[in-house]
Amino acid sequence: MGVVYIGDRAVGKTHLALELANPQGNYVQVSLVNQTYQNLQANLLNLNGTAKPTQAIEKRSLDVQVRLPTGLSQISVDWIDSPGELFRSSWQSDHVNEWQDFKDTVGKSEGIFLIVPPYREILQPYVDKENYITQQQWCNRFNRWADFLIYACPQARRIVICLNKADLIDCELEQEISKLAYLPYGSSMNWLQRHNYVVNSYFRPVKPQLEQINKSRSGLSVRCFITSIYHRSLLELPWIFLAGYLAN
To answer: For 135-149, what is each residue's pLDDT tens digit?
Structure first.
């Protein structure tokens, strides 16, 4: 089983993957071959802690292990960093081989893990909103992702869409964490209830597009989450979901 990990530019993919690899995990661990968590940080981050910019499509492999009530499940992940111009026709024309390789990898994946940013209208008042796109721009960008997921991912059985940087969203985050929390025995919500709650709270502007993805083919299931590198339970939740359905 393969999962591809993709997302918008400057959305926090690198930091999210790095924090997932932090050995202080609960139910999810990343197996690092021939390197430590600290070495991975040094390779992927600048000295000031920012992620190194992506000039071309870069592919890395992650081995994600998830502890479930039924035992340890393993997910093989292709983490693909891409430049922000990925969906521009001019970029695709100038990088034909890279674009084709990207489509081939995603097209064969059974699981898709997509990271999207928050938009201005849902941010906390103290956040500099000039660093984030508007809701309309966010919807336009999501439309491109929706078309891509429908037409370029024929093997996908599970698609996870994560609204990252939940710590910047104007909400009672500790209450949200409590509602969405995963407990091996007796969680307050099942996966569908979590999805519906997150969609109605944070993805409402693209609810029709989500329904369109879900209905695009039989056997496909889309689930939405909120994530943050500062809250481990939110960070692990989508991986626990994927492991329950897709892991070997």
So the answer is: 999 999 999 999 999
